[in-house]
Amino acid sequence: MTPKSFETRCLRLPAVTKVVQWEGTSVFKVGGKMFALGGGFAARSGGYMFKVSDMVYAMLIEHGLARPAPYLARAKWVQLVSNNALPDAELTLYLAQAHALIAAKLTRKTRKELGLASPGQ
Fold first, then answer.
1. Is pTM beyond 0.70 here?
2. Edge to edge, what strands does the sheet with 77-80 contain?
3. Distance CA 60, CA 112 (A)
4. I want to staple 91 with a disulfide (CB 3.0 to 4.6 A). Which of 33, 75, 86, 117 is the partner?
């Protein structure tokens, strides 16, 4: 997936903002909380980074598609071994899941303000 496609797919998700931090890294957030990183530091150290579930974390690392993300591994973030380690459709699904994992941790009030459905709704 190209960096432009990655950015487009992240920004299509509900209530997403993008800021550039850390040596030109594009940081994608929902409710002020990061769910994906691309470019800048992420590009220089490997591929895209994003939040995953415990099961996906183990699976992607075991299959050699990703490694624990620098500084974020304890929070179950992965870094792809390259930007093309996954098919575009699969990466798009993982980005949606990363967004959902972070959005689910936001307060009910914040989710409502952002127009996001509460978990279970």
1. yes
2. 16-21, 25-30, 33-38, 49-51, 77-80, 66-68
3. 33
4. 86
Phi-psi domain of 55 (left: phi exceeds 0; alpha: psi -120 through 50; beta: other): alpha
Q: How far apart, in Å, are the Cα atoms of 16 and each of 27, 81, 89, 99?
A: 10, 25, 19, 9
Length of the chain in terms of residues written: 121
> Is the pLDDT at 90 greater than 60, yes or no?
yes
62 pLDDT higher than 70: yes
* Alpha carbon of residue 57 to chain centroid: 12
Q: Which residues are CB-contacts of 56 (< 8 A; sequence separation ≥ 6)?
A: 78, 94, 97
